[in-house]
Amino acid sequence: MAYQTRDVVEAMERDTGEPLRELRVDGGAAVMDVLCQFQADLLGILVRRPRQTETTALGAAFLAGLGAGVWKDADLADLWKIDREFEPSMSRDQADSLQAEWRRAVERSRNWVTGASERPSRS
C-alpha cells in the first residue's frame, strides 16, 4: 500500500508540478503506526493521522451539509483534530532503493499467468 501510494503521489506531483508537503491519512489502515511511519519514510514528508480515522460516512454527511448550506468550509476545517504525526526518518537513498525494488517486483509480475488457452491441461 505504501509503495503504491508513493507511485500515485509522484504521478500527481509530475502532473501538477507541485510537491506534496504532507499526507493526511484516514481509514482502517491508518491506525497502524508502522504503516504510517513507513509511508512517511518512503515519501520523505510528514504523514498526519486524525483522531477520527473512519471518515467515509462522516465525509458524506459533511458534503451533504455543505451542499445544503448547513455548514461552511471553515466550520468543518476546525473539526479535523490531529492524533499523531509521523516524520520521515529513513534516508532518501534507502527509500529510493526500496521503491526501486518494488517497481522491479511489479514489472517482473507482469504476464505472470498466461492466457487460459495456454495453460497446460490437468488430465
Distance, first to last CA: 39 Å
Order of helices and strands: HEHEHHEH
Rg over C-alpha atoms, rounded to the nearest angstrom: 20 Å
How many alpha or pi helices? 5
Rounded average pLDDT: 90
What does the model show?
- With 123 residues, the chain is mainly alpha-helical.
- Helix 1 (2-16) packs parallel to helix 2.
- It has a domain at 2-54 and 81-96.
- It has a three-stranded mixed beta sheet, covered by helices on one side.
- It is built from five helices and three strands, in the order H-E-H-E-H-H-E-H.
- The protein is extended, with a radius of gyration of 20 Å.
Describe the structure using short key phrases.
123 residues, mainly alpha, three-stranded mixed β-sheet, 3 strands
How would you briefly describe this protein structure?
This protein is 50% helix and 11% strand. It has 123 residues and is mainly alpha-helical. It has a domain of 69 residues.
Helices and strands, with pairings:
Blueprint: H1 2-16, E1 22-24, H2 33-43, E2 46-50, H3 56-68, H4 73-77, E3 82-86, H5 92-109
Parallel strand pairs: 1-2
Antiparallel strand pairs: 2-3
Helix pairs in contact: 1-2
